[in-house]
What we know:
Elements: E1 3-6, E2 13-16, E3 19-22, E4 30-34, E5 37-41, H1 43-47, H2 51-59, E6 67-70, H3 77-89, E7 93-96, H4 100-110, H5 121-133, H6 137-146, H7 151-156, H8 159-171, H9 182-190, H10 203-207, H11 211-214, H12 219-231, H13 237-251, E8 254-255, E9 261-262, H14 271-291, H15 301-313, H16 318-330, H17 337-340, H18 355-366, H19 380-384, H20 389-426, H21 434-442, H22 453-465, H23 471-478, H24 488-495, H25 502-519, H26 528-536, H27 568-581, H28 583-588, H29 600-606, H30 615-629
Parallel strand pairs: 3-5, 4-6
Antiparallel strand pairs: 1-7, 2-3, 4-5, 8-9
Helix pairs in contact: 3-4, 4-5, 6-8, 8-12, 12-14, 15-16, 16-18, 20-22, 24-25, 29-30
Amino acid sequence: xxxxxxxxxxxxxxxxxxxxxxxxxxxxxxxxxxxxxxxxxxxxxxxxxxxxxxxxxxxxxxxxxxxxxxxxxxxxxxxxxxxxxxxxxxxxxxxxxxxxxxxxxxxxxxxxxxxxxxxxxxxxxxxxxxxxxxxxxxxxxxxxxxxxxxxxxxxxxxxxxxxxxxxxxxxxxxxxxxxxxxxxxxxxxxxxxxxxxxxxxxxxxxxxxxxxxxxxxxxxxxxxxxxxxxxxxxxxxxxxxxxxxxxxxxxxxxxxxxxxxxxxxxxxxxxxxxxxxxxxxxxxxxxxxxxxxxxxxxxxxxxxxxxxxxxxxxxxxxxxxxxxxxxxxxxxxxxxxxxxxxxxxxxxxxxxxxxxxxxxxxxxxxxxxxxxxxxxxxxxxxxxxxxxxxxxxxxxxxxxxxxxxxxxxxxxxxxxxxxxxxxxxxxxxxxxxxxxxxxxxxxxxxxxxxxxxxxxxxxxxxxxxxxxxxxxxxxxxxxxxxxxxxxxxxxxxxxxxxxxxxxxxxxxxxxxxxxxxxxxxxxxxxxxxxxxxxxxxxxxxxxxxxxxxxxxxxxxxxxxxxxxxxxxxxxxxxxxxxxxxxxxxxxxxxxxxxxxxxxxxxxxxxxxxxxxxxxxxxxxxxxxxxxxxx
Length: 630
């Protein structure tokens, strides 16, 4: 860091009986009171350089041996005054970025200008500030930080604005052109290869060399500095985003998964202090949100969601929350389930996580308004017409728009998986209402879910956590499930799931039977007992014989255990219990109870084989043997 020395005489100031004085053969004739300190000095060296002291002394006549001057509002306090006094006596003083701001404000207060004496303190400080402080990187930051002690004086003297402009210009320059400290220079040299060009390994780090140093600034100075950097339009948005992430991690409190704020240890833990800290953090977070680059992808979705969690806990403004939700929605496909687990601190509900905020994010994602790519039909006239250059340009633009739509379609597939796994987490919350669960599941369009295994797992978890649901509520819940999109393992589990409505179990059996028949290369009519059962539940058997895909894959952690359902006896009792539960519903649909629960044909249906692929042949054989007996 740069420093400057003024004066050549040794320091002769001393303290006697709580009074600061200077050793001299001439008796003192001036007493100056600066806040809590008293100085016994001489008029001649001080008044010759300080116009303000000249005027004060001339306005008040000498009434005693000592003339007393009160300076209660002196900027910089005792240290700054003593520095100016020593300069007047010719005593050596050392100036650096740490004390130049206070010295400059004090010299201006005393009016130590060129009009009083040539080469006065203000002139010397301005030369040092412009030629050395503003040219150095670390010096500029230290000087800017010191303006916090004297904000009004620093603003009036344009010290703050000049420091910010100097820092912004250095950020936009290459590190090799900036006067860095020893540690910074060594780090930059390490990031450069032998021929002077940036190595690929440290290229991104060297471009953002300034972010960690700026993170030491207070939020108001940091905000002004970042605005100056962004206004140049020369800094890449991703580097702005990286800098904001560093600053947020430096100053924002850690947010735990349960929504607790992990503050740094503090000796003052009363409620007023905690309230002040929360207010500071809230202001800091809202300032960071206002600095976020407008470009999509400038900051990660994970970072945005961390800010959203903090905004929820710190009770930030609704505009900041909506802005974060909008930005997260633009790149939701990058998020993870843990990112979306935002703690709920609302007093209106007792849910563990803020599901409504996630629904707002999903709405913002869906508002992008891009549908899956489709090829528009081409007319015969357009095919036969000779294609002109302009028509080719139109087709090129159409292809480009399809590419963007295709990217949006793939992102919707990722978001669908994300939402289903998020549902699995929040489904364990006993306070999550059925309507919210269904509303969240229905925000995803049908085409985005290529399989319903994750959704079925979420429904199964919800049913286990909410066993107080009645039959109609369970039916309402399962309407969002498409049995045709379940894998074989999911079908096996669903067919033996006692928590599912009978209608869903029948649908699963039917589609698994059709899949097994298709795998055998032969699809025949369904047995009459299954047809009757499906018809009783409003299902048309003739419309469900289309071949189904058997190649749907699921992840290892999405497998279901069927160890508790291997016994044919347990499967029979499970289905019989479901039949007894749904007898009334079957009667309302116009089907006699005799043909369902007590039918010998349906007993054969209950005795499901352990191998799903042999289910159809087993059912047909049982049905045929029963028919022959009759």
